[in-house]
């Protein structure tokens, strides 16, 4: 059979048998594009005259490479942002629900430090007064609220990161990438907190006032009856004060840490690393980022808990009651453990979902600036 020159120069695994996995799996090339179909398939013209005389017909075909996703999601398409939104729902909703016991003790330590003096004693008080079931009080508003927040946080972050990069242009996007991470995450969290705030208000009231309500179904109507519909957003500004710095630190530090790990700690380029190693990097980067997040956002977290628990309370009342030192330190060790684990797990779940649908993990080497003409 006659073979073209390009096939004579092919490697042991010829290009017409496998399409490049390193590009298609990263979403950089459409595996069904006309270019790949033409370069990775047999051509009728390459069939020898003897084969044609024998009536043998070769049909065009492509065999997906091993580990190559069978489906395809084009980068920065509506399907891409929908996948990131779904990943955010799973990563935030499930993780926050899982750490409900820690969150419950933290909130009560912030509200009533005389009764809940520490982590161990706090769990003991809850177990004695409410039993084991009391550890998960408020899990439904937690699940719903942080699922809504995660959807907006991750989905809009990916959108704004691309949007601001396009505005800046390739050269400045690479040069000022950290500023783009900060701006994109702040914009996304501004929207996400509007979705979270009503659920957070009910959650705190359910967790810190025994007997107020069992959960979201009876707690939400009771809260609205007592505070009015706008009362659900009484803590929005402190929530922005807590969550926007938290998310800016969460995304910008994560991107920087992951890039540094691939640059200095891992000798293999990211695209050549196994998916399990990449997900391990995502978890490690997320955990370290979570520690920074907890420290930056903790004073506002104390304010949110105080304002949602005390009817008619103001920020001045919170500062006077907690004190400046207490505002920065009360419940901080527990929150560092909780937020570090939470953030690491969120990035792990989020990137695992992206890998599952055929997308690359988040972070890595910075894009090179285009060469000047």
TrEMBL record:
<dbReference type="GO" id="GO:0005743">
    <property type="term" value="C:mitochondrial inner membrane"/>
</dbReference>
<dbReference type="GO" id="GO:1990547">
    <property type="term" value="P:mitochondrial phosphate ion transmembrane transport"/>
</dbReference>
<comment type="similarity">
    <text>Belongs to the mitochondrial carrier (TC 2.A.29) family.</text>
</comment>
<comment type="function">
    <text>Transport of phosphate groups from the cytosol to the mitochondrial matrix. Mediates salt stress tolerance through an ATP-dependent pathway and via modulation of the gibberellin metabolism.</text>
</comment>
<keyword id="KW-1133">Transmembrane helix</keyword>
<protein>
    <submittedName>
        <fullName>Mitochondrial phosphate carrier protein 3, mitochondrial-like</fullName>
    </submittedName>
</protein>
<dbReference type="InterPro" id="IPR023395">
    <property type="entry name" value="MCP_dom_sf"/>
</dbReference>
<keyword id="KW-0809">Transit peptide</keyword>
<keyword id="KW-0813">Transport</keyword>
<feature type="repeat" description="Solcar">
    <location>
        <begin position="79"/>
        <end position="163"/>
    </location>
</feature>
<dbReference type="InterPro" id="IPR018108">
    <property type="entry name" value="MCP_transmembrane"/>
</dbReference>
<dbReference type="GO" id="GO:0005315">
    <property type="term" value="F:phosphate transmembrane transporter activity"/>
</dbReference>
<keyword id="KW-0677">Repeat</keyword>
<feature type="repeat" description="Solcar">
    <location>
        <begin position="277"/>
        <end position="356"/>
    </location>
</feature>
<feature type="repeat" description="Solcar">
    <location>
        <begin position="176"/>
        <end position="260"/>
    </location>
</feature>
<keyword id="KW-0999">Mitochondrion inner membrane</keyword>
<keyword id="KW-0472">Membrane</keyword>
<keyword id="KW-0496">Mitochondrion</keyword>
<dbReference type="Pfam" id="PF00153">
    <property type="entry name" value="Mito_carr"/>
</dbReference>
<dbReference type="GO" id="GO:0003729">
    <property type="term" value="F:mRNA binding"/>
</dbReference>
<keyword id="KW-0812">Transmembrane</keyword>
<dbReference type="InterPro" id="IPR044677">
    <property type="entry name" value="SLC25A3/Pic2/Mir1-like"/>
</dbReference>
<dbReference type="GO" id="GO:0006970">
    <property type="term" value="P:response to osmotic stress"/>
</dbReference>
